[in-house]
Amino acid sequence: MSEEEDFNAIPVMDRMVHKNWKARQSAYEELKDKFTTSPSESDPIFAPFLDNPGLYKKIVGDTNVVAQDQGIQSLAAFLQFGGTQACLRTRSSVVPILAEKGLASARAGTKAASTESLLWYIELDVPDPVVEDVVALLGHRTPKVIAANLKCLVDMVAAFGKTIDPKPVFKALPKLLSHADKNVRAEAMNFIVEVQKWHGRPLMDAVLPGWNLKPVQQKELDEKFAANAAAGKPTQPRLLRSQQQVLSTATANGIESDEMDVDNGGDEEESDPLALVEAKDVLSQVPANFYTEVTSAKWKERKEGLEAVLPVLQSGGPKLQEGDYGELLRAMAKVVHKDANVQCVQVAAQCIETVANGLPANAFARYRFTLQAVLERTKEKKASVAEALSKALDAIASKLPFSEVVEDTLPFISHKTPQVRIESLNFILRLLSTIKEYPSDQDLDQVIKAVLKTLSDTQAPVREISMQVLGTARKLIGERAFEQHFKGVDDIRKNKIVEYYDKATVVAKPKAKPAPKPAARAPPPSASATASNKRPSVATPGQRKLVRPGGGVIRKPFTGSNGGPSSGFGSTESKPVQSSGYGQSSGYGQTRTGLMKQPLKKIPASPSIDSFGPAASSADIEELEELRAAKETWVKEKETLMAAFEAEKQKFAAEKQRLLDEINSLQHSKADILEQHTKDAVSFKSKETQFSRMQGDLQAAYKRISELESAAASQPVKQEPREMSPSVDAEASFRELSLGGEATERAGENRRMSRDFSGGSNSSREFKPSHGGTGGSRDFGGSRDFGLGNGTRDYSGGSGFGARESSVARALSPDRRDSYRPQAQESWQRAAEVTNQLKARIEAMKARQKMY
To answer: Using CA atoms, how far apart are residues 791 and 707, in angstroms rounded to an integer?
Structure first.
């Protein structure tokens, strides 16, 4: 007890830094009581902590858990009664240590006081700084700290609703949902459920697919989402200080609190589910070689390039960062429109769909060209490709105005390809069924008139889908408004349209017509009018003010006993009478009274001259005539202008129709040109293949010629006895050069054998072997064979060519030898000429080869 008295005797500021935890605890308790009983936010008790914000940083981080508990409770009281200045001066230094030490405490009271303090920090200013410090601890190494901060975030959303931005937490949630600690996973699931309760299911449908939830987690979330939907729309239980000021001001002005929307809790349908999703940059991640691969001549390279880009675009999630996607989408549109490989078309359509879904409408509006490219390719009948194209069309249409979509789509319902007509009508059918904003009557009328023309199409599927579109359009605009379009439609088709009308479902609702404004109150009479009304009406007829024709206010005529001109209007005040629109009194002297006696068929455009009675002067009549003439002039001018306007309108309509027809014609011509281009490309490819094959054959021929030249050059010129037979040897030489090496050798052997085994007649030679000695002998007989006689020549050993040549030369007589020389020389000259001719031909062939 004595120690406690000693602690109480110590000043509070000294006890706060005392080494004994009980002294610190007593100081914290005393501070809490003083804060609670302070008369205002400017009380001196708050000054030390406002001047030195680090004091509460030490208090919150007290090493003793009991003292820490009391210190955090005193912090909550300090914030509650200290006001905005207490929050702003201490927030940056206290919140991080409070989130790490206080929320993760083992004491329940410390956790509750820490959460309450953080909620006060949010209420007194804005939530973002506090949420940022708490989210920073979601990557802490201790699971207990992570779970405690997640639970605090759940309490923040539950207390302040939509004022808490969940985007910073969304970045960490995928990792937390797969955390090893079950408490962390449970708190992450609770946070998702709490956010869904405030922001609706569309937000969760947008972000959950990218978090890779387990089936068990998805099932649990679906159950809790259903429970939130059944509970109805929540209301914000705790208001920010700024919201409280707005509410108090409104209450002071007599506005009910129920009429105030201080929690920003709009309907789920009106909020953008992607507003809270973080946009991701994917353009910088597109491979550098994509634009090279997508224009490659090989379809496999194009497909690989597209398949490399698709995961990059899909990694951006439901919201892509805005940027210049023009080059990327133009490359995709070109593939969809012109690529001959359907696999490339399918992947490109998926890329277009991903970009369209990820970009906001205002950012995607400039990429309208993708719509026509996809519509042109709807001729594909393969199921997977057709599905990809349909999804791309729906994604594009969701980001473009209805009028632009209709303008680009309607020309395709009259396309020359039946499949394109079918898919275009299917697209319009989906568009009318799912559009959320009611389109303009002009756009709907344009669609209906264009689709009515397809009811007589040659293809039955086209006619059937056309009737479905018309039935859906009838559901959209209503039965009465659609009746005018039934003119010229036969009963069978009309019944089918009505049948589809009964089955059709639409989302858009016609805009409610504004309630008629109440009739404007008559303006109070001006001072001059009041003064004139109070004066006795003794003015002469010449001083009377003329009422313009068609005016809504007239004065009641004076009906006295003396109705002459001198009587005037009498001395009674005349009151203005509101024109009723039917049976208005036309002037003086009329005796009809009562509504039932007034004419109902026609309202006079202007009062007649007689309606002014005898009080009307000639000046008034002239003024009236001038006004009537001016009116007639204006009416004629109006009619002239309207006629000119109608003529220009018809002219513009005809010009528009002509341009549309020209566009259709050009599109058909373009399709024909593309088809012809494809055929030409195939033909060119075939010719190119033939040319390559012929070029290969030519190279082989050149190679063979070179081999023959080498073989001819490598064989030596042999001096054989056949040189003495000019006619035979010249022809043999020609054959040798023409046939090549092997043929030359065979021809040479044949000639030698014919010479060796010939007889002794004029046309043959005889070979007579000798039986003596080591050699042999040959007789060359006959006058034709070199003029040899019966002489013989023995070959002493060997049978070489040189021996035979020398023996033949010795066997010739001088006369025969001299007679043979001119013939041999002539034969050799002929052979040389043939050789030169062959060489010239070879050189010419080489020259042609160099030209290629």
So the answer is: 46
Distance of CA 449 to the CA centre of its chain: 29
Q: How far apart are CA 397 and CA 380, in angstroms?
A: 20
In 3D space, the residue among 180, 120, 107, 178 whose CA is nearest the CA of residue 148 turns out to be 107
Ramachandran area for residue 518 (φ above 0: left; ψ -120 to 50: alpha; else beta): beta
Q: Are 257 and 247 spatial neighbours (Cβ–Cβ below 8 Å)?
A: yes
Angle among Cα 766, 768, 774 to the nearest 5 degrees reads: 145
In Å, how far are 58, 162, 178 from 237, measured between CA atoms? 32, 11, 32
Query: Can you tell me the mean pLDDT for 161-170?
Result: 91
pTM above 0.85, yes or no: no
Nearest to 134 by CA among 104, 174, 179: 104
User: What mean pLDDT do residues 811-830 have?
Assistant: 63
Separation between Cα atoms, residue 818 and residue 52, nearest integer Å: 142
pLDDT one-digit tens code per residue, 131-156: 999 999 999 999 999 999 999 999 99
DSSP assignment of 737-797 = HHH-HHHHHHHHHHHHHHHHT--SSTT--B-----SSSSEEEB--SSTTTT--S--EEE-S
CB 123 within 8 A of CB 116: no
Closest to 151 in 3D by CA, of 197, 119, 126: 119
Among 538, 532, 543, 535, smallest CA distance to 566 is for 538
| Token output for 700 | 């082989």
DSSP 577: E
Q: For residue 852, what pLDDT band results from cuts at 50, 70 and 90?
A: low
Average pLDDT, whole number, for the chain? Answer: 77
Q: Are 562 and 613 in contact (CB under 8 A)?
A: no
**pLDDT: which is higher, 27 or 557:** 27
Q: How far apart are the first and last CA of the chain?
A: 117
| 3-state class (DSSP) for residue 587 | coil
